[in-house]
Every structure is written in C-alpha cells, then in structure tokens.
Amino acid sequence: MASKYNYNTELKRVVLIVDDEMINRELLGFMLKNDYDVLYAENGAEALEIIKANKKLLSLVLLDLIMPEMDGFELLGILKSEPELSQIPVVVLTSEETAEVKSLRMGAADFIKKPYNMPEVILARISRIIELNEGRFIIRSAAQDELTGLFTKDFFFEYAQLEERYHPDRESDAIVINSDRFHLVNELYGRDFGDEILKAIAQGIDNILENSKGIACRAEADTFMIYCPHRADYDELMDKICSVLSDMSVNPRVRLRMGVYPNADKALTIEQRFDKATSVCNTLRGNYTKRVALYDEEQNSKDVYFERLINDMASSLENKDFKVYFQPKYNITGDEPYLCSAEALIRWNHPELGMISPGDFIPLFETNGLVSHLDYYVWQEAGARIKEWKDKYGKTVPVSVNVSRIDMYDPEIKSKLLKILDDNDLTTDDLLLEITESAYSEDAGQIIEVINGLRDAGFKIEMDDFGSGYSSLNMLTELPIDVLKLDMIFVRNMHKDEKALRLVELIKEIATFLSVPIVAEGVEEEQQCKLLKNLGCEIIQGYYFSKPLPHEEFEELLKK
What we know:
- By secondary structure, this protein is of the alpha/beta class.
- It has three domains: 2-143, Response regulator (Rossmann fold, 3-Layer(aba) Sandwich); 153-295, Alpha-Beta Plaits, CATH 3.30.70.270; 312-559, TIM Barrel.
- The protein is 47% helix and 20% strand.
- The chain contains 22 helices and 20 strands.
- Strands 11-12-14-15-16-17-18-19 form an eight-stranded mixed β-barrel, surrounded by four helices.
- β12 and β13 form a beta hairpin.
- The longest helix has 25 residues, at 119-143.
- The radius of gyration is 39 Å and the shape is rod-shaped.
C-alpha cells in the first residue's frame, strides 16, 4: 500500500479514483490510463491518506459518495476545511440528482453520472476540469505573494479597480505601511528571520482586515499596501499590527510607519492614490515621535514645491539664476552717516517660478546640506564684485558673506576662501564672514576650532543674529568674534518697549566688555537710528537707509 502513496511522475497528470466497488475503479482506470497516471482508494479514509501524501501532485479526485468507513460527503467536508487540500478539484461520481446539488454546494467542481457509458464525454469533462483548475492556479500564483500570502502589487491594483467598479460611491482609504531601516534586520539577524518579520506584519494586516471589506498586498520588500473602506482608527490599526511583532520570541524593535490618503479622490488612478499615501509615509522616515501621517493636499503641494526647488538648484547655479544683492551698511558715528560696507544676500529668480523667497529656499537647503553650494557661489560672486568696484572706482567696499554651520564641517573652507581672495587680488579685510549665533550651539568645540583657524588666517568674524541664538554668557568669553550683529527683533521694538531698549543697552555693554563693535540690522525708522547712535552703536543696516540692491544699483551709491 505504501508504494501507491509515494507516487512520482514527470509527464502525466495524476488522478485519484475513490470508489468502494472494484469494477467501477477498474472501469474508470481503463478509460484514463492512456492519458493519466491513476491512483486508487477503496474508501474516504484511505483516499484522505493518499491525498495528503500526494497533495502537490494530484490534478483531480474522482469521488464516489456512498462508501464504508468514510463516505464521499465527509471527505468533501474535510478537503474543503483544509486550505492546501481544498485546491484539488473533486468530481463526484453519482447517480442521484439530489446528491449532485449537495456535493456542488460542498465544493465539488463537477459530477459524472453513473453508469459510465460515454467514455469520450467523461474524458472531455475530466480534461476540462483539470485545465480550468490549472488556469486558476496560475492566476492564484500571479495574484499571491509567495512569502506572505497577501496579494501581489499588480493583482492588488486590478482588484482595487474592480472594487471601484462595483462600489463607486464607497469612501475608501489608501494606506501604505513601511519600516525604517529594515535592511539592518536582515544584516543583524539573517534573511530568514527578516522573512519571519514580513510574514508577521502580513499576519497583523490580515487581522485588521478580517472583518472588513479591505484588501492588502506586499508591494515590494518591506512595503505593504491596504485599500479599505474609510475609517479613522489608524493608530489602533498600527497597535494591532505591531502587537503581532511584539509576540515574537525575538523582537528586533522594527519600527513601522503608516501613510494614509483618506477619502481617496476617485478621479485619480489607484496608482496615484497610493503614490500620495507613499509620499506621506516617507515624511515619517527617521521620525521617532510619530508613526501615522495623513495626506494633506496643502502640505503635499509644499512638499512638491520644495522638491522642485531642490531639483532645480544645480541648474540655477550653473545658469546664474541666483543673484547676489548687496545691502549697504552705514557708519553713524559722525555728523553724517556714510557707506562703509555691505552684506551679500542671495535672491533666486527662477526661470519658471519667478522670484522665490529666501525664506523658502535657504532653510530648505540648510536642512539637506545643499546650502554649502549656495554659500560658495555667494562668496565667489561677492569677491568678483569687490574687485570690480575696486577697479572701477578705486574704492574698496568690504562685503560680509554668510557662513553656515554646514560650511564649518568642510575641511577645505579656509583654502576655498583664501583662493577667492587670491583670484580677485583681495585681502581678508575685504571679505568679512558672518556666522549666526545658533551655529555655535551645536558641536561648539568643533566650530570654535574652525573659526580660530579662519581668524588666524586674518579673516574678521561677525556673530550674526546675536541675542536670538543659544550661546550662554559664559560661552561669550570663549567665542572667537570680531563684531556683534544685533538681531533685528530687538531693534524693531526698542523705541516702543522699555524692556527691549534695556536689552539693547545690555548687549551694547557686553560688546564694550568684549571690545568689539556692534552692527544693528533691521533699522527702519529714524527714531530707531537716533536711539542706537545715542547708545554708541557704530554701524547700521536696514531699510531706513536702503533695501538690498542688485549690484548695478549698489554701484550708483558708490558713484555718489
């Protein structure tokens, strides 16, 4: 008996005939033997053993209903209840019409009537059932992710479109779930364990969809997608999914993040809806205080806009769409104020978007590190203008340029600045360096070391936005600076608010103690200018004298 349970075949499909009557078994076997490899069982119990032993080989079961030990109905019930066995098609052998209906409802694929007096019809029906089932198997294989059992991405999108067709008015959510740095799980614990994590996440998703109309897929690697009727309990969903991970014997602390595009716009394609969910999911990368984010059209427009700026920066630098403006600084110590220097400020005239606010692109480039390219561009342009004015008018107008915190980590910063001086026949008195106070707050030791190196080379250092940063009074004794630049927030209210005026007085006292001059920026009114002069402030910058000017307009001031 054991030999027939361990069947092996290379070419023919395998068919199991289950009938307690030997003559029926032999008759059917004779019909099939030329086209199929045939196995036999005398009752349901014996058939179940054969099916379990050959479940991956069997193409069809021909099943009699009336048998001893275990009848056909009982075997059908068992096969239907076990997922691996339920995939094998069963054709019922019967002569009772009522039994035909019952067996079809229990999962039988077809029926063949006894007696077997039309062999050609029987063979045609068997061939057709096997062909249909194999076609379904191919479809299932293409539809199902082999590792997790969820849908594949392509089938998922097709299925979602069908849902839309049948439920056009249903509000639906597109949800994307991903994990941070999943590749580390594979590296630390091995790929097999990583696969177990993915299966656990899929199980968690299955759990939350169990009583809903939603569908899910593993889109790729550690990315999962869910399309379901609109709901609002996203944090609860994450709790349920994560609970499956916490139940694992080894918990590598995988951090999941969820992006949701709620009440998805039906005018968009399924792919576009999930693009939006993916984009908002990506905003949570590296965020350890938030794990669920909802798509917001306004925020997305900003994200798209900022991404456009990032992408266009390099070409705009190359095409000189960035323009360096110069805001004059005036010395007010004498009877008449006079132009003594300027600050270089960057403006962006985008070829398609027009003038872009520095408040948009400078913080953006500071965040992603691109600001260092922009700073170097400004240094070069400022150096070239200083030389041009010196050659044209025989005058040297010192220009201060901004040096960002990112620049401080460039090991070539000093050599780059010195090269600009050398290329334009300038000295360190011509190009002044502005560094914001907040730059000193992070890795102060490193920053101070770099600044000391620049000062040793002869550069003058202005601390910009003094009073708005985070340097302690104790740190002021260590900070290498040559000028304090008073933040405009103090200047703005000093003539209206006694406290603001007193703070300016205190900052002036600090500057006197450090033996450095003060530059006040943001001066817009005559009263502010008079107060600052009375306090002993030497240099003023702001709209009271002039707004930032293109270099051509700044030249007009030099002519005067």
